[in-house]
Structures are given as structure tokens and as C-alpha cells.
Amino acid sequence: MGKIKKVAVIGGGAAGFFAAISAKEHHPTAQVNLYEKTTKVLSKVKVSGGGRCNVTHDCQDIPELIMAYPRGGKSLTSIFHAFQPADTIRWFEERGVSLKVEKDGRMFPISDSSQSIIDCLQKEFTTKEIELKQSSAVKQLLKDENRWSLRLNDDQTESFDCVIVTTGGSPKQTGFDWLADLGLDIIPPVPSLFTFNMPNEEIKTLMGVAATTAQVKIEGTKIKTQGPVLITHWGMSGPAILKASSFGARELAGKEYHFNVRINWLEEFNAERIFTLFAEVSQASPQKQIAKFNPTALPNRLWHFLLEKNAIPLERRWNEVGKKKLRHLAETITNDRYTVEGKTTFKEEFVTCGGIALNEINLKTMESKQHKGLYFAGEVIDVDAITGGYNFQAAWSGGYVAGKLQ
User: Fold this and answer.
1) In DSSP terms, which residues pair with 229 in a beta bridge?
2) What are the extents of the domains in the chain?
């Protein structure tokens, strides 16, 4: 490829902004235009992490990092070697935005405001004289010998040496039709990162209660996750549930979101170990009320719920509960069962699995294998991750590599 004079980036999200900035950094004399079909840019950045923006995850080990990507995985190794979380942290800090690590590894700006990230990216656009064109939808991509033409919503056509597509995920496959027209293989999109609806389960009455060390299994699948589970007014959420939804995105879509989930509320224990604990408590504190003397790490409201689920009256004393009841209680705690009937998008963070098939892309450069000068980054490709800053990291890394225009 000769000297690059004009670059188009399509899509004004995290990957698009970073790809445009990277393109200008690597090709300072090139004209870089970013096209966004709406009047808003960086909308996911704004709402991420409850408005704080979960920028990345404090994972410095690439083999560990790639395990957070059900779609992508080892295929992403090369882009993470090129630009990993440590590079993200350094990039923002060099531009005056310091990040902090929370105990679960998620990273946020010290300001606790996504506006800090948005302002930083927009300032880079101004400094680097990148042209932002809003309300500019790209209707069609056309290859004309060694150049690309963009047909816009006003039927105007503009010509470029290179194009980087960063349009994000789409809830429907028709959102990828303009790319399928180029002969690209599109993996049908389905939702990822969602919470479980349990309309007929009484456990919803415990909304707000969280078990910190649970294990979640989806019946009839190999999906098994660990971590906190949060009970909500519609069912269950929390890291273990979201991780299960991410790894099971396509399989659970195939079940039309009707399935059963098994939960071990104390992931580090098995039923026999808990029964032994109960037997010891019965011996040591026989006169104590079972509701008031909770020997487990379960929140008390959940403890009471599970007692009632096993028909154990809350006023009963430990020595009044027979071994059979205690064994059933231990089995319920370690193998509780609930029916899921539907899903809800996690907060405002809509994530899909699906998009442009990875085998269409040279993942060392993010360039299309079929079409020279056409690059991709972000959720438009079949890459997505569990919650925790990983989806943004894939956007920064992919955008950075695509922007090199190698």
C-alpha cells in the first residue's frame, strides 16, 4: 500500500474513536474522518459501570486475559500483545486521566465519571484534527480498484484509501446486511451479558440479597461459573450469572431462554461437609434457634428462605431438627434449583455475540482477508467478553491495531 492520504472510520463508539486516534498517530499526514449515524458518540462509554466507565480490567497476564472472551479467546492473543491493559492504563494516564483498581479487578477513572474518558478521547480528536461527522450513516461500501467509496445517507459519495468499520453489535442480522453485501461471512447475532428472569420463583422476594461465593450450573449444558449472585425483583443477576449468560449466549438463545439453573450457594462446600457442620452445631448449641444461629456465610435472609423452603420452622431449635431435615437442607444449599423463563439486558450495557466471522480477518492487523484496505474493530466482529472491563479492552486493543493500517 502506498502512502495513506485518507482514512474513514465508521462508528462513533470506543473502538471507532480509538481506531481513528491510532490511525492519526501512525499516519500523521493522513486525513481521518469518523462517521457516526446518530447525533451521539461514545454512548456506551457514558453508561458503562453505572456512569463511571469500566475502562479495562487489571489483568496483566495475557493467557489469563483471553479466558474472559467466550468469542475470541486465543485468537485475540496478538492484539493484546500489541496493546494490553497496561498500555490502556498508560495511554489514559499520559493524557491526564488516572485509573483506579477495585477489589474485583475492574478499573475506573479516579473521577468515577465516564465523562473523564469521553473528554479525553474528544480532546484527542481536536488535537489531532480528526474530523467527526455525526448524523452521517454509511449506506454502502464500494470497492473501486485500490480505493473505497462510502455512500452516505444523503446519497453523497466519498472516496478513501482505507476504511475501518467499528459499528458495534446489532440486535438483528439485517444490521450487518451492508457488510454481507461484500461477501463477508456474518455469524448471526444473539444477546450476551443478560440477567435471568424467574417470574414464578419465590426467591425474588429476597431482592437485594447477594451470595458472595456461589457456583452456577445450567442444566443440560457444560456451563458452570463461580462468583457473587445477586437476587433481584425479576430473578438473578451478579457476576456468576452474567458470566454464565456470556459463555452460554448462543446455547441459551437456542433454548429460547427457558432452562433450569442449579446453584451452590456456598461454592467451596459440598453437601456432606455442610451436613457435618450442621451435626456439630446441633451437638455444640442444641438450644439455639436455627433461624437466629446461622453457622454459614449465607446472608440471614437467604438462610431463612432456605429453612422455609425445607419446611423447617424458624423458631425451631437446632436439637429439634432431625438429621433427615438437616441433610435435605445441606443438599438444597449446595444444589438449589430454579426455573428461568426469559432474560433482561444487563443495565444499559447491550452486548451481542456474533458479527463478522473471525476467519474473515487477519487478527494480527485486523484487516479483511478478502478486501485489502478494509479493517475492523470492536463488537462488529464476533468477539465479546464477560463483564468487568474486558469488552472495552477488546475495543481499545482492536482499534489500536486496526489504526496502524498495516
Assistant:
1) 211
2) 6-190+349-403, 194-345
- In terms of Cβ atoms closer than 10 Å to its own Cβ (0-12, 13-18, 19+), residue 94 is exposed
Question: Can you tell me which residue has the cell 475495543?
Answer: 395
Select from 51, 52, 40 the least CA-distant residue to 13. Answer: 40
Work out whether the CA dihedral 293, 294, 295, 297 comes out positive or negative. negative
The Cα–Cα gap between 310 and 280 comes to 20
pLDDT band for position 349 (50/70/90)? low
DSSP element (H, E) containing 187: strand 186-192
pTM, entire model:
0.93
Cα angle for residues 259, 261, 264 (degrees, 5° grid): 175
For residue 348, give the C-alpha cell. 444499559
Task: Note whether 241 and 216 are within 8 A (CB).
Answer: yes
> For the domain 6-190+349-403, what is the CATH superfamily, name and number?
FAD/NAD(P)-binding domain (3.50.50.60)
In the numeric block, the cell 480528536 is attached to 125
The separation between CA 368 and the C-alpha centre of its own chain, rounded to angstroms, equals 25
Q: How far is CA 184 from the centre of its chain?
A: 25
DSSP 316-356: -BGGGS-HHHHHHHHHHHHSEEEEEE-EEESTT--EEEEEE
**Contact call for residues 13 and 43 (beta carbons, < 8 A):** yes
The amino acid at 168: G
What are 108's three cell numbers?
475506573
276: left (phi over 0), alpha (psi -120 to 50) or beta: alpha
Compute the distance between CA of residue 17 and CA of residue 9 in angstroms, rounded to an integer: 8
Mode of pairing for the β-strands spanning 194-197 and 235-237: antiparallel
Q: What type of residue is 108? A: F
pLDDT digits (tens, 9 = 90+) for 362-405: 999 999 999 999 999 999 999 999 999 999 999 999 999 999 99
DSSP 141-169: EEEETTEEEEEETTS-EEEESEEEE----
Pure H helices in 238-299:
239-247, 249-254, 271-284
